[in-house]
Design a protein that fits this description.
Two copies of one chain form a homodimer.
Chain A: H1 8-35, H2 40-51, E1 55-56, H3 57-64, H4 68-80, E2 84-88, E3 96-100, H5 102-126, H6 128-141, H7 144-157
Antiparallel strand pairs in A: 1-3, 2-3
Helix pairs in contact in A: 1-5, 2-4, 2-5
The structure holds a DNA duplex.
Chain lengths: ~160, ~160
DNA sequence: CTTGGAATGTCAACAAGGCTGACATATTAA
DNA sequence: TTAATATGTCAGCCTTGTTGACATTCCAAG
């Protein structure tokens, strides 16, 4: 297998693996979200607000790769529902700094716990070396600007 | 890293890696699809019809994990546009066996080539051992029934 | 040979969550 | 003073998912 790891057939299998794995990856949070009338878009917003507290709307926009109108719709409901807090910037008062409320953090924990459990189980089944390879390939698969965003987030926090 | 590969922080990074990588994974086909007024749903249908020619609607339904109404809408346009062929089953004439026309195969090749190139570059950047780990973790991340479907496809074809 | 159920197709209605375009407002920077 | 930036919001559109209902065709069991 290693001597031909980039054959068309190998690559097609990789494509299918990504497809099916991503379904598993989102399945657990999706089930939780469905019970509270939220969707994946809410999850993504909550995740990155939790991850980079105090981030601005613009930064979140770029991270998520959606339009402000699309994000705004989601963000508005999260703010109305008391999960996300929006504070005017002190230095630049045009900016809104976003953070989770304690209620928001509770939901974030539930969603994250489910997703982390799925990943942890997969990591254990595959082993530490596999995990390293997994991360390497995923990183290489990103667009350059996404890789930068990824590094910005994981280096500061991790 | 290896001694703590399943810490919460490591897992959160894995989650983000999946998120950003999946964006890259779909980016190239998405660009092609946009020029011809198709979406990801069309791509997925085309991919699996190409992969398992002669498959039935029901099998495709289960593979894709959507409702028949949702698939039917996509499939109908593909058939109307002459990319997919639907033949009544010989043994069981309720079934429709799906396959790509030559036009369909052309599009499939374009989409697949773009996506395979992305993956191949990532594989080369990460190396053969990493690829093995990548595949292992992805497989472990799938739901059981998706893993069965995945094996059914890759074992027959690959 | 009838009948139940399976496989498929189709209609209608609805929702989430993307998008574009246009416009308003506040604030900062030139 | 003016231009640019950050944000919010309204309106409308598209894709792609959902449910529910119903028709057709056909296999298979009784």
């Amino acid at each position: 297998m290693k001597e031909n790891f980039d054959s068309d057939e190998e690559l097609r299998q990789g494509i299918e693996a990504m497809f099916f794995a991503y379904r598993g990856f989102t399945a657990d949070p999706d089930r939780i979200l469905a019970t509270i009338d939220y969707g994946r878009a809410h999850h993504r917003a909550i995740h990155f607000v939790a991850r980079t507290p105090g981030t601005t709307v613009n930064k979140l926009l770029m991270t998520l790769g959606v339009t402000k109108q699309s994000l705004n719709r989601v963000l508005r409901t999260l703010i109305e529902d008391g999960l996300v807090e929006s504070r005017q910037g002190a230095r630049d008062r045009r900016e809104r700094h976003l953070s989770l409320t304690s209620t928001g953090r509770e939901l974030e924990k539930r969603l994250s716990a489910a997703q982390r459990e799925r990943l942890r189980d997969a990591y254990h089944a595959a082993g530490p070396e596999a995990v390293e390879g997994f991360r390497k390939v995923l990183e290489a698969m990103m667009d350059d600007d996404m890789r930068r965003t990824y590094h910005a987030i994981t280096e500061v926090e991790g």
